[in-house]
Amino acid sequence: MIQLFHVSKYYDRRLALADVTLEIEKGEFVLLMGASGAGKSTLLKLLIGAERPEEGQILVQGRSLSKLRPSEIPVLRRKIGVVLQDFRLLPKKTVFDNVSLPLLVQGASTVEIRRKVTDALRSVGLDHKKDLFPPGLSTGEQQRICIARAIVNGPIMLLADEPTGNLDPELTSEIIELFKSINARGTTIIVATHDPNVLAQVNRRVIILDQGKVVSREQVCP
Ligand SMILES: Nc1ncnc2c1ncn2[C@@H]1O[C@H](COP(=O)(O)OP(=O)(O)OP(=O)(O)O)[C@@H](O)[C@H]1O
């Protein structure tokens, strides 16, 4: 699904990722851990084509990202759902409209939008809140809406950057359970976090970054 070969990324002359080589299989649920500044977000940005490496090669489904034409980047993005710590929901749009945004951008039909948004909202258990506005929802619910928005396109992989950063341990558990159920349906999931609560609940492979280098890529437990 994802292969990185000797990938290095610099911001100006500052090294953010150093000679990273790793592989993530289809259907894996991987945690990306490391201290602040270790390079977790940078790695996720490289995978969605938001940043480009100065050295090395990144393949997603066997295709080299460096060989994608600019017009192909949006096609790649459609295959990848992204969940961030700060929700970035539009406060004046309903839950339904927020989740439908990625489909609207692609010019999906009204019928397709209704079907896919309803499915995504059901997956996160919030279809009954579709007509509400984000400020009227709890923090955990807002994060679940973000997850619905990220999966509405049926992505091949879901990348989450500190998705539980604003949540208490109970809500963190809810979100992790949701990721597990999405992963069980076949979506590859990569979660960047330094939250030990996430590590405690996700007994899967952990890739640890330290100052831009991969220092461990253990299979913690199947
Ligand atoms: N746009 C940028 N311009 C310059 N330097 C950057 C930029 N983005 C990240 N960096 C630097 O690159 C390094 C890696 O940052 P990155 O955000 O990937 O780390 P992180 O592990 O995600 O950290 P955090 O957990 O705090 O989000 C850091 O030294 C950071 O200061």
UniProtKB/TrEMBL annotation:
Select a single GO molecular function from the record's annotations and give it: transmembrane transporter activity
GO term, biological process aspect, one = cell division
SUPFAM superfamilies assigned: P-loop containing nucleoside triphosphate hydrolases
Instruction: Enumerate the subcellular locations listed in this protein's record, separating them with semicolons.
Output: Cell membrane
> In this record, what's one Pfam family?
ABC_tran
ABC transporter domain location is: 2-220
Arranged from A to Z, the UniProt key words for this protein are: ATP-binding, Cell cycle, Cell division, Cell membrane, Hydrolase, Membrane, Nucleotide-binding
Its subunit composition reads: Homodimer. Forms a membrane-associated complex with FtsX.
UniProt-listed PANTHER family: CELL DIVISION ATP-BINDING PROTEIN FTSE, IMPORT ATP-BINDING PROTEIN
What's this protein's function? Part of the ABC transporter FtsEX involved in cellular division. Important for assembly or stability of the septal ring.
Q: Give the family, as the similarity comment puts it.
A: Belongs to the ABC transporter superfamily.
According to UniProt, the name of this protein is Cell division ATP-binding protein FtsE
Q: Which organism is it from?
A: Nitrospira defluvii
State which gene encodes it. ftsE
